[in-house]
Amino acid sequence: MSQSVPQPKLFACSQSKELAEKIAKAYGQELGKIITSTYSDGEFQPSFEESVRGSRVFLIGSTMPSSDNLMEMLLMLDAAKRASARHITAVIPYFGWARQDRKDKPRVPIAAKMIASILETAGATRIITMDLHADQIQGFFERPVDHLFASTLFLPHLRSLNLENLTIASPDMGGSKRAYAYSKALESEVVICYKQRAKANVISHMELIGDVKGRHVVLADDMVDTAGTLTKAADLMMEKGALSVRAICTHAILSGNAYERLEASALEELIVTDSIPLKKESKKIKVVSCAPLFADVMHRVNSNTSIASKFIM
């Protein structure tokens, strides 16, 4: 005789409230109630306003800077652990601080490893995230990590464009694996940009490896921060004879002068997910929601069924 699977409890961190509401709606239930008290100096305290004893709990929140976003997730994990939740899954659509995944010079931290350890210490028994900046970050955790790919969202959109002479481009050498995976799925050609940085977020030189003349180009990357790399790559593609240039970037950080750069660039369209809320609207930015993907995976995790079909890349 089969037993019904107990329903989990879903809670939202404040920075991802809008996305969490979409996920909860796609999941088929309401978000749980949380009250956050804030002291005059900025210290804050989240409080679950319902019992989570013995429950599977999903805490939804991206951890992009400021550090308050990470701190809120940690406090909620600790609160759920101390309230005797049975399983505590941190649903982190955008895993912040992931660019510090190795020592690239002496006397610097490996922030991604440190944060993985802190999340587990705070109480996370499982992590669900999407398009980590580096795949090896999964190995920083001792708990299960479900690393989802936004390709499951972007590929249907790209196919719907019916672009002939399609070429997938990587804006740097590090993203070549991602570009090749998209090109294999779309049966397209691949080109790669080679760039040199003067310092973080500043490109001193960029060259194109491959031919884009007479082709529609789609740049693929995991995130767009200042948009310097993307816009420079798009302008370079057009100089080399491309018919059009689009970009797919999972996480729309869009800091500094990113919006101004996008508007002034040759990019026809920037396609992103809602893992991070947009600071403002732009006619060049199209948002594809990741809520159905996360809701589906959360259902599968709760019922202990396979999520292998979600790993296209």
TrEMBL record:
UniProt keyword terms in alphabetical order: ATP-binding, Cytoplasm, Kinase, Magnesium, Metal-binding, Nucleotide biosynthesis, Nucleotide-binding, Transferase
NCBIfam families: PRK01259.1 (NF002320), ribP_PPkin (TIGR01251)
One function term, GO molecular function aspect: ribose phosphate diphosphokinase activity
Cellular-component GO terms for this entry: cytoplasm; ribose phosphate diphosphokinase complex
UniProt keyword Transferase, yes or no: yes
Listed name of the protein: ribose-phosphate diphosphokinase
Source organism per UniProt: Dokdonia sinensis
Lineage: superkingdom: Bacteria
EC identifiers of the protein: 2.7.6.1
